[in-house]
Write a structure and sequence with these properties.
With 388 residues, the protein is mostly helical. The protein has a single domain, classed as Growth Hormone, Chain: A, CATH 1.20.1250.20. Helices cover 82% and strands 0% of the residues. The protein contains 17 helices and no strands. Helix 3 crosses helix 6, helix 3 packs antiparallel against helix 16 and helix 14 packs antiparallel against helix 17. It is globular, with a radius of gyration of 19 Å.
């Protein structure tokens, strides 16, 4: 790592916090978006689905198109883009215009998170690579602790547009920080056509990515609709709803901190299995959360595992094949967003058909499938050549 690696790590962590806040704020603000724009919850949820689809499709495309771009400039300007697009959403009077700019804004998450991880993977020493990558990914956990509850509370009190303005300001701060500390002429290994062919042809890498799709799908059946779900089943006040989101996020932060500390010791594959098991425990006991305080207890294991799973998956892919990490991490980012799109669309369909009580069972099915595939991948991992 360069001499100022601590500043670089913190700037990427903050960038991931802003990116995560932008992605996660819509579920928290879904109630107010639906009421303000006079559309259904499922209709408002399309903001999540459409944005996730774009992020899924564009992450590997941009990893190829922008492969020679200086990451110092690239990571800075994608944060500026994030700010401008969300500011445009604020002034749009109709849902259609908001949807367009929201989808365009999702170009930034498709680029920033995988490219930041690839940069850290290139700069970090091999024996510290897993910890460095999971540290940077803590930004998403912090977003769930601070961003999502803040979005839920501010949207209930001041309206969802205020949340979008806050995000725009934070994006500009992130852009300035990244510009200041990121080394010039920083370019992770170029993904050539043959490298993409090798990545896509690796059964182990592709099944690892499939774990992310299945895990994300299962979780987003519920997480995309936490706000309307809890409002319908528990009738919480704005403060109580923010408490639920905040506790869930705090558990996510704790889980990621613990993962960052121990992932190199226990191994990324075992970490994935542990975190998926925690998520499954919450989903199995979901119906027990029939009060705010019981709901906090039920979501605790899930919170501990949710973001830690994604962090462990990123580290797992890079450790499996560092030379192909730019492509595999981009595909894994696509997988995260594909899972979000599938889960949010499936959850919206269930809500439209008055089957909200099936959300956690569908989610559990996805997590169990993810665990099974992950075990399979672990047994095959020796087939992938590693670099030390």
């Amino acid at each position: 790592m360069p001499r100022h690696h601590d500043s670089l790590l913190w700037s990427f962590l903050f960038g991931n916090f802003v990116i995560g806040f932008g992605v996660l704020m819509v579920p928290g603000a879904l109630n107010d978006i639906s009421q303000d724009l006079h559309i259904s919850i499922a209709g408002a949820g399309f903001l999540i689905t459409a944005g996730s689809i774009l992020m899924c499709l564009s992450a590997p495309v941009f990893a190829t198109i922008l492969r020679k771009q200086d990451r110092h400039q690239l990571l800075t300007w994608v944060m500026v883009w994030y700010s401008v697009c969300h500011l445009a959403c604020v002034v749009m009077p109709e849902f259609e215009g908001i949807l367009i700019f929201r989808v365009l804004a999702m170009i930034s998450p498709a680029i920033f998170t995988p490219q930041a991880a690839a940069c850290i993977g290139q700069l970090a020493e091999p024996h510290k690579r897993g910890r460095a990558i999971t540290f940077v990914f803590l930004g998403w956990s912090v977003a769930s602790v601070i961003g999502t509850p803040m979005a839920a509370w501010i949207s209930e009190v001041y309206g969802w547009r205020s949340v979008f303005v806050i995000l725009s300001v934070l994006s500009l701060i992130s852009a300035a920080w990244v510009w200041w500390v990121t080394p010039r002429r920083l370019s992770p290994p170029v993904m050539s056509v043959s490298a993409w062919r090798q990545t896509l042809g690796s059964k182990t890498l592709m099944l690892t990515v499939l774990v992310t799709v299945l895990s994300g799908s299962g979780q987003f059946f519920l997480t995309a609709y936490f706000a309307p779900y809890f409002k319908q089943t528990l009738s919480p006040s704005p403060a109580e709803l923010s408490l639920i989101f905040g506790w869930f996020g705090a558990c996510g932060l704790l889980g990621n901190v613990l993962l960052s500390k121990y992932v190199d010791r226990i191994g990324s594959a075992r970490a994935v299995h542990m975190t998926l098991s925690l998520i499954a425990v919450s989903m199995l006991g979901w119906s027990l959360g029939n009060s705010v305080w019981l709901a906090l207890c039920v979501i605790t294991p899930w919170g501990l595992g949710m973001f830690a799973t994604n962090s462990a998956q990123q580290a797992r892919l890079i450790q499996l094949s560092p030379a192909l990490s730019a492509g595999s991490v981009a595909l894994n980012t696509s997988a995260i967003y594909l899972g979000q799109a599938i889960g949010s669309a499936g959850g919206g369909w269930l809500i439209q058909h008055d089957a909200m009580h099936w959300l956690h069972w569908c989610g559990l099915a996805g997590v169990i499938l993810a665990f099974s595939v992950s075990q399979w991948v672990h047994r095959m991992a020796s087939d992938v050549p590693r670099e030390h």
